[in-house]
Amino acid sequence: MFEPDALRWLARAGVSRAIAVLEVSSSIMFDRGIESCLKYIEAVPWNENEEEKLKHVFARCTFDDSVSKDVLARLQQQCGSSSEDLTVQLVESVTCGTNNGARKELQSLVSGLLSKSSVYHKDLSGLNKGSLYQICRSCLSSLVELFVEDSRQAECTGQAMKVSGCKPMMERVSKQTENLNWLFDILVNNDMAEEFVELWAKQDELIRMHEQASPMFRYELSRISASVFIALGKGRIQCPSDTRSQLFHGWFRPMLMDFGWLQRCSKGLDVRILEENLGQALLTLPLQHQQSLFEEWFRCFASRGTECPNLSRAFQVWWRRSFVRSSVEVRR
C-alpha cells in the first residue's frame, strides 16, 4: 500500500485481497490505505463471496462516512421502498408484458426469487396478498372481456373467429390464462391460494360463456381449472367443502368437454397427473355430490373415450366407499 499508484496495485491484486488489505489498514488506522481500498472496491464488480466478506469487514470495523458512503450505498438499500412493494410491481409488469418470450423468462425469474427454496427468499419481508389478488382480479376481468367480445361478435356475424382474427383472440386468451396460472403457482407456493379457489369457483359468467365459445381457445379456461384441481388433489390447498363443491359444480363439465384439447395442446400440462388429481379432488366431496359427478363422468367417458379424462380408479374408490362398505355394515 506504499506503492506510488495504490489503485493500480489493488487492481492487480483483486477484490478479495483489497478487502483483506482494507481490514488490516483499519486495524492499524492507516487512513491512506483505507481510502485507497474503499475507492478501488467501490469502482469494481464483486461476486457474492466478496460481498459477504465486505459485509463482515463493515460489521467489525468503523470507517469514516466521507470515504465509506459510496461502498455502503452498494451494500445497503438506502431508499424506503420494501421488497414487498417491489415484488408486486414486478409481478404486475410481467402480467402486462406484450412480448411472449420475455414474459415467460421473467415469470421464471420472479418465481425463482419467490420460491421458498431460493437463497433470496429469506430477504423478502413477505408478499402483499391483497395486491396479488388485485392483479388476479384484473387478469380475470380481462379474460371475461375477451369472452364477452367473442360472444358479441358471434351474435352479430355467426363467424366470430373470422371477424376478430383467430390467432389474436387465441393469443390474448392464452396470455391471460398463463398469467393466472402463474399467479396461482405463486399463491400456492406461499400458502395464499385458498381465496383463488373461491374466486375461480364463482366465475359464473365465464362458465356460462364457455359452452358457446370456440373450443380452439375456450379450453384455456380448463387449463386454469386443471391447476386448481391438481393442487386440491395433492392436498396443497385446504378449502371448505362448500367451496370445493361449487368449484366442481361450475368447472367439472367444462373440464370433461375440453380434455381432448388439453391433451393435444398440453403446453407442459401432464394430463395423467391431471387425471389422478382430478379424481383425488373429487373424492374430497360429500358422497352424494360425488355420485352425481361420477355419473356425469361415466356417461361422458362411455361416449367420448380418451377425449374424456379417465377417472376409473377414483370411481372404484367412490363405489367401494358408497356401496361395498355400506353393505358390509348392513349385514352386521
Automatic annotation (TrEMBL):
Q: Which UniProt keywords are given for this protein, alphabetically ordered?
A: Ubl conjugation pathway
Q: What is this protein called?
A: At3g05675-like ankyrin-like domain-containing protein
At3g05675-like ankyrin-like domain residues are 81-325
Annotated source species: Digitaria exilis
Which pathway does this chain act in?
Protein modification; protein ubiquitination
GO biological process terms on file: protein ubiquitination
Q: What does this protein do?
A: May act as a substrate-specific adapter of an E3 ubiquitin-protein ligase complex (CUL3-RBX1-BTB) which mediates the ubiquitination and subsequent proteasomal degradation of target proteins.
